[in-house]
Prior knowledge:
5-stranded parallel beta sheet, Alpha-Beta Plaits, 3 domains, alpha/beta, single chain, FAD/NAD(P)-binding domain
Amino acid sequence: MTLLILLGLVVAAGVPYILWTRMDARKASRAIAVHEDVQSMGDELVPVSIHPEVDLDACIGSSACIRACPEDDILAITDGRARLINPMSCIGHGACMSACPVGAITLVFGTAKRGIELPKLTSTFETSQAGIYIVGELGGMGLIRNAVEQGRQAAAAIAKSGRRGSAGDLDTIVVGGGPAGISAALALIAHGHRTLIVDQDRFGGTITHYPRAKVVMTGSFELAGYGTVRRKTMSKEQLLELWTDIRERTQLDIKEGVRVESIRAERNAWRVSGASWSDHAPNVVLALGRRGAPNELGVPGEDLPKVAYRLIEPDPFAGKHVMIVGGGNAAADCAIALAQAAICASVAISYRKDKLARLRGSVRTELDRCFKTGAIQPLLSTEVKSITEDHVTLKTPEGMKQIRNDNVIIQIGGQPPSALLKTIGIELVEKRGEA
């Protein structure tokens, strides 16, 4: 009887252990697969935001950092240590560092192999050019709560500086209508500053281009003249409702569809100019993202309403002949999303080279599958020469060719905001894995 009881105890303890070890092995295998998939991007693997760096010698593999991370597939335990397996998806939350029981995690910019250029800022987010401030993602901090707080602090510094416009002129121009820009503008208005927001797209910033129902980490934050928002997470739709409510209740002065092309000194102010707009103010807050303005093809017809530079949802393309232009992960992801939705009359991808290189492993596998099934038509070694209402003309190795088309989505990268910063004379510093 004693032996049976002992065997029963061994089974009772052993079965859960075996199940746990198998589950742990599967998690580790999946983490390694994600890591290899991301690493297949090669030199493009440079996080644009602040992200964790793990000291493997100090790490004890407690998993506390993984549980604290609000995103999936960022950190994972492999070989008994926490590792950063997907830095490109990190949002710079920093909860992992706080959760680590042995202080094995630090938050850094860039990597030892490849750095990123960031503007040199004071503690109040002022640049090397007096009166110009940078807040939010452009400064390396992408989390909404951080961006909001930076906007508030920059506004307080501007108010304290005493720089004001002449009677009837603006005191501050805020470039960017996302969380950082909204926060800065509201705080400036609370300080009595005449403030204008300009955005190259729509009020709300990058969030307006998120996929439907995407959940965003927010955390509690306070907006001057509006109140405190107490939500750990919000969906895209909830955030858009919040921005709409803010706009209606505060009557912010906003100009949408204005792409700022130059900022230059003008007497005691800064002249901010776009293609069809220009104004001046002694203070400028740059609340831009790091993605920058999208690159254009520069071909006839590119200004037609049928041309877009991003895919938000597949639904508007139902029954349409759609062509994606580009050869990177963004273009491939766009084509795959449309193919998987299975609602388009046809999906094609045009690229000037004979193969799509530097794709993530999982993206390449799925794209090849779509090519084989005919869900996506590969138009490699082709170059768009013109766009009309019902077709696209391509230059191919066999000569010019017209393709029936209803919509074109151009995904050929963007112009980094750092180029604009350099023209203003703002000092940049390169960060290579620095805290």
